[in-house]
Amino acid sequence: MAAKIISGTEVAKQIRAELKDEVSELKEKHDVVPGLVTILVGENPASISYVTGKQKTSKELGFHSIQDNQPDDISEEKLLGLIDQYNKDPKIHGILVQLPLPKGINETKVLYAIDPAKDVDGFHPVNLGKLMIGEADYLPCTPAGIQQLLMRSGTDTNGAEVVVVGRSNIVGKPVANMLLQKQEGANATVTVCHTRTKDMAAHTKRADILIVAAGKPKAITADMVKDGAVVIDVGVNRIGKTASGKAKLCGDVDFDAVKEKAAAITPVPGGVGPMTITMLMMNTVKSAKVHAGLI
């Protein structure tokens, strides 16, 4: 029997509808408007596309939105000064600097310059440290989206064997830590696999929940998945073009084969992807409430 499809597109729509109502209530009852600035340096086409999507969503939700475009020859000093301005701006509750940055600018230094209280991407070391001890203010967006997909699809993580394939700072490490916590949507037993894991299949075949962020097309095949597992595919790989000329995408999981064994699976596209921007919006609304003293 084919797996249930966990649609990130549908779950994201549901969460955005909830956020839109929350933003309306904040405006009406408390005169609070969530503010988000996205800073784009240069003209990287992929970055422009990502930022456009974030701005479009924030405006649809009723945010105070600023798109701050800077030339690719901006100095590191000037960029840091710009971030400092937004750190001090009471109308801005979330600051996002789109990566990658041009050569000559230290990305780590730039990300560390963002006020942790406005770090709605959740990657400042202060916020990652709070995540580690179970007291996160803002969860990293893609891992948070994964957790929401599990919770809203009715997947029980309590005591579940979770295997995470990939140890990146963006997905693998934070989602593993999140699912370890003594919290709703967590309490799992977590194994992390990576490029130096000796027998990947031995681990993945044990998984009740398999989260794959390997960065390699169809890295997980059907023989590596337990019958009845829940599979979350984080990968987005371009493997050619469709007849209409659009990029043809696939995940890190062999979807067609694995969906015949899994109980539930996320598609690519339309799985984890739509959740990432949605979680950015959720973090920004939370930041607005924190700054207004409402939570």
Q: Which structural class matches the secondary elements?
A: alpha/beta
User: What is the string of helix and strand elements?
Assistant: EHEHEHEHHHEHEHEEEEHEH
The total strand number stands at 11
* Strand order within the widest beta sheet: 1-11-8-7-5-6
Main sheet overview:
6 strands, parallel
CATH level 3 topology of the largest domain: Rossmann fold
What integer is the average pLDDT? 96
- The CATH homologous superfamily of the largest domain is termed NAD(P)-binding Rossmann-like Domain
Mass-distribution shape: globular
Number of domain modules:
2
Number of helices: 10
Low-confidence blocks of residues? none
**Which range best describes the helical content: under 10%, 10-25%, 25-40%, 40-55%, 55-70% or over 70%?**
25-40%
Strand content: 15-25%
Radius of gyration: 19 Å
Secondary structure: elements and pairs:
Elements: E1 4-5, H1 8-30, E2 35-41, H2 45-60, E3 64-70, H3 76-88, E4 94-97, H4 107-113, H5 125-132, H6 141-152, E5 161-165, H7 172-180, E6 189-193, H8 200-204, E7 209-212, E8 230-233, E9 237-241, E10 247-250, H9 255-258, E11 264-265, H10 273-291
Parallel strand pairs: 1-11, 2-3, 2-4, 5-6, 5-7, 7-8, 8-11
Antiparallel strand pairs: 9-10
Helix pairs in contact: 1-10, 2-10, 6-7, 6-10
